[in-house]
Amino acid sequence: MMLRKRKGHSPGEPVETEDSHSLRAHIGxxxxxxxxxxxxxxxxxxxxxxxxxxxxxxxxxxxxxxxxLNRTVIDLYQRFLSRRPKQDGNLLSLQTQSKKLFTVAKYxxxxxxxxxxxxxxxxxxxxxRPSLRLPKAVLTAEEAERVLAVPDPTTVLxxxxxxxxxxxxxxxIRRSELANLDLExxxxxxxxxxxxxxxxxxxxxxxxxxxxxxxxxxxxxxxxSRLMVYGEERAVFLAARGGRIAQAYLTQLVGxxxxxxxxxxxxxxxxxxxxxATLMLEGGADLRFIxxxxxxxxVKTTQVYTRVSLHKLKxxxxxxxxxxxxxxxxxxxxxEETQAAKGERGSKDETRSGAPKIRLDEEKPVSS
Length: 368
Known about the structure:
The protein is mainly alpha-helical. It folds into 2 domains: 1-131, Tyrosine recombinase, N-terminal domain (DNA polymerase, domain 1, Orthogonal Bundle), CATH 1.10.150; 141-315, Orthogonal Bundle (hpI Integrase, Chain A). It has helices at 27-35, 41-60, 71-83, 94-113, 141-148, 156-171, 175-179, 210-227, 247-260, 269-282, 287-294, 299-302, 304-308, 310-320, 339-353; strands at 186-187, 192-195, 204-207.
């Protein structure tokens, strides 16, 4: 169930219900409580949708009030999520299950805090442990440059799109973080941008880099001023009609740029996030710095990029480790295998097995 965000409405507004003491009735006050503590509006709308789904599931089983909740109910709901199919027929991912359960657990904790239940029914809930998924694709530095070169910077929208792609590539920020950037978040003097209330409602600073700063300045001077319709709009990136650029449009923009570049890879905004982290790691960056750049709460999440870079590690290993490859037997005294020996051994081995045999260095010839 996906709840549409409505302009001018708050996620903490009352939920329609006949019983003012029901589970559904307390969703509004709970979200208003979170809203007052600085939680992002987009995240609260997601929580609202997840809690309504949980309350609907409970109502079907005649569980309508907070006092009806117990550990068994929470365990059964966890089992339901593990078996619930999506619209495409596939089951919910472990990541999605964990997020939905986390929302329910926080709601139960708030119910206990407000003395609406005698104890927290989700206190002993064990969350699924999703495995870290490798990115489906990562761009090389050359491929990234090809994508960046797609927009035409001589046009108003082309210059804006180039600045967007440069920012994604240089900083690895999320789509929502870029869409929510305001003018006061850019600090050219320090060469950073401030990410306010990113994922997990956390703030961080991200370095721009000289090239990205130059493109961003050019966009602000030459393009944004021509897109601005409403003088009070503080968003950095504006749509053609003058409002804040939409996250869905960013996905289309990046996807089309990748397709138009002729690269045989598919992806969206997150592809640049994976690319930035992987290229920095291969360039020698410490994992802790990449964690700070991406805004990961746990370094274990960042460690997935060490797996992405395995092809680089394998190439270095094959080129430098003396025992990494199988080598043919060398002639004693010369250190090289003669052409005659190669031909004789090759024909004999091919006759026996149908394929040439590679003799390891450790193997010694059998004396006649």
